Amino acid sequence: MVTRPGPRRGSDSSITINPLFARPGEDRVIDRYRLGADRMLPETAYQVVHDEAMLDGNARLNLATFVTTWMEDPARKLYAETLDKNMIDKDEYPATAAVEERCWRILADLWHAPDPAAAIGCSTVGSSEACMLGGLAFKRRWQEARRKAGKPADRPNLVMSSAVQVVWEKFCNYWDVEARYVPITEEHKTLDGHGLADYVDENTIGVVAIMGVTYTGMYEPITAIAAALDEIQRTTGLDIPIHVDGASGAMIAPFLQAPLEWDFRIDRVHSINTSGHKYGLVYPGLGWVVWRRRDLLPESLVFNVSYLGGDMPTFALNFSRPGAQVLLQYYQFLRLGREGFREVQQASQDVARYLAAGVDAMDAFELWNDGTDIPVFAWRLKDDHTDNWTLYDLSDRLRAKGWQVPAYPMPDNLSDVTVQRVVVRNGLSMDLADLLLDDVRIAVAALDRLTAPLPDRAAPAGFHH
C-alpha cells in the first residue's frame, strides 16, 4: 500500500491501494476522512490498517512507557476469547464479575488490609480512573464531615508532590479542588514530609503519596509522610488521610521490598491504586483501587446493580468497558503466585540496575537514581561534560536505532535540570540491555566528536506521560 496525490481536500486525504492487495471490483483509491460509498473485503481492510500500523515504533523497544507490551501465548489466547465481555454488565457476565471481586480482594490481602473481607475495591480502565475515584472519595468524605459539623465545604484542597503524574492535576481541575504542590528539590527529591505543615489546613481532603514517581521511579517514604501528618494532628487536631498512588510500585514493593511499610499497615493510608497494565503484567486497559474499610468509601458515591438475583455495589467513572483485562489479571495471579511475581519483578530490577551501572560508568553522566525502587532509573548530563549536545540529542540518536528513551525537564524548582529515563518491563532481557548500552556508547562517542554545538531546539515544556 502506498499513498499518492489524487482527488483531495487536504494534503493527505486519499489512500491508493496496491493492486496486489485489492480485489476485483474494489475501489483502488479511498478517502481517509469520509466513509466510502461501498464495502471493502475484510482482507483488503486488514492490509490497509496493518500497513499503517507498521509505522509505529517497536513496543518492546519503548523504554518510555510503563505499560505492558508482552504477554505469553496462553494469555493472548484468553484475551482473544474474552474480548466481547463488558465489565459493567454483571448480570450477563456474572463469572467475570466474580473474578473482578477476587482480584481486588487478592490486592487487599497483598497490601495488608487489616481485614481483607471488610475492604472494598473495584477495577478501572487504568490508574488514572482509579486515582480519580480515590480523590473523589476523599472529597465527598471531607464534604460530608464538614457539613455535618456546620462548616463550609466549598474550598477543598489536595496536597501532593510537584512530581505527581498529570492525572492528579486533572482531578483537581475537573472536580474543583485546589492543588497544593510541595516542590521537590536536590535535598528533597520526593515528598518526604519535610515542610508538609505549610501546605495543609482544615480544607485539606488528603495527601497523595507516590510509590514510584513517574519522573524517576523513586518511592516516596510513606512512613515519613504519615509521621509528619501525625505530628500535624497532635499540634492542630487535623486528621488528614493518605492515598497511595501505587500505579507502579504497588505491584513491585510487595515482592521486592516486602518489609517496607507503605500500605495498609500504616493506619493513615485510606486507599491505594495500581495499574494492572503496568507491573500487574496485563495488556493496556486495567487499573485497581482498594479502600482499607468499606466506610472509607462514602455510600453517596456507590451505586447498586442487579447481580445474580441480588445487589452488587459499583463505583466507577466509566460504564461499558472491557472485561478481558480483568480475566487476564486473574490469569497472572494464578499463573505466577507470589514467587512467580517476585521472580519476574526481580528480573526486571536486575536489568534496570545493570543498565544503571552501565550508564553510570560513562564519563558523560551521573545517575539521579539507580533502579532500586521500581525497575526505573534516570540520569543527567554532567554540568562540565559538554556544551555541544544535550540529552535531547542523545534521545534522537537512540530513536534512530529504534529505542525510545525520553529526555525531559524536572518539575518546578528543578525545571532547569534535564534527565533521561529508562523503564524496564517484563520482556527487556539482559541481551537487549547490552545492545542498548552499546548504542548509548556509540551515540555518545559520536556526539562527543562534535566540534560545535548542535542547533538549538526547544525542549518540551514538561513531562506528562
Protein architecture, described:
The model is unreliable at 1-10 and 461-465 (pLDDT under 50). It is built from ten helices and 15 strands. The chain is globular and about 75 Å long. It starts with 13 loop residues before the first strand and ends in a 17-residue tail after the last helix. It has helices spanning 42-53, 73-81, 94-110, 127-148, 166-174, 222-236, 253-256, 324-360, 391-400, 430-448, and strands at residues 14-16, 29-31, 120-124, 157-161, 178-182, 204-210, 242-245, 269-275, 287-291, 303-307, 310-314, 365-369, 376-381, 407-409, 418-423. It has 465 residues and is of the alpha/beta class. The protein has a seven-stranded mixed beta sheet, sandwiched between helices. Strands 12-13-15-14 form a four-stranded antiparallel beta sheet. The chain folds into three domains: 14-56, no CATH class; 75-333, Type I PLP-dependent aspartate aminotransferase-like (Major domain) (Aspartate Aminotransferase, domain 2, 3-Layer(aba) Sandwich), CATH 3.40.640.10; 345-448, Aspartate Aminotransferase, domain 1 (Alpha-Beta Complex).
